[in-house]
Amino acid sequence: MLVYHLPGTFETREAHLDLLWEAGATGLEERAGLIRAYFDAREELSAEIADGEWRDEADQDWQAHFKATLKPVRAGRITIVPPWLRHEVEAGQTALIIEPGMAFGTGHHATTRMAVEALSALELSGKRVLDVGTGSGVLAIAAALLGADHATGLDIDPLTIPIATENAEINGVPPGRVAFAEGSLGLGDESDETFDVLVANLYAELHDLLAGEYAAALIPGAPLILTGILTGKLDLVQTALDREGFGGVTVRGDGEWVLVTATA
Ligand code: SAM
User: Considering the domain 73-263 in this protein, what is its CATH number?
Assistant: First the structure.
């Protein structure tokens, strides 16, 4: 079994966990000051996570270890859980089941959690929601579970689409209320459909590029929820929102990550 040992913890290396998933990790575990990333084959890793060490370890029931480290994530009215922790969702909370490890968006990243909280704070019934950079589909599925009429999830990575579709099925969201498609905004081929809410967990530079597209995709007065923004890059996003005429900007943070809301 191939394990990549990366010094640090989920907390200290939070910004790097998605790089491990993107590189093809099949599971992540934290033990004794090390992040253990399980891989099927050695992969070329980006510079930010190149300070670890590849180890061939004797086989053990790593899945049991991995599963034992996962906890339910409470985000507003939603609790995000892997299938085997469904029974731990407290009464009054809505379970959002995500099988970890297939695409970004298990709820364990601060940005996903803050975005679900922000969706949860809105009245979504009767609303049409657009989720740009849907990954596992978690935010679109959360919107549907919170009562949105319809949620559309877009992602430039085609591998995410069947995963998000399957996650919607697992959560009992009927195909008529959620749709996932390969794509993005700003590619020149989108329809002129408008939405009542737009949520995007991407990164600051991309929000800057897409801010005009967000404005065009929203009806006037509609809420915009942006995250994936490192604290140091907040200015870039705020300037872009000003430029595109968004108002009512609010900012909240969790560690090095921020979430911004605004009104079209
Ligand atoms: N929405 C999920 C969440 O909140 O956990 C996943 C967010 S993950 C940080 C970002 C996702 O955006 C990835 O699945 C990536 O493939 C996708 N992505 C990156 N650039 C994009 C773009 N220009 N347009 C649409 N999706 C993009």
Answer: 3.40.50.150
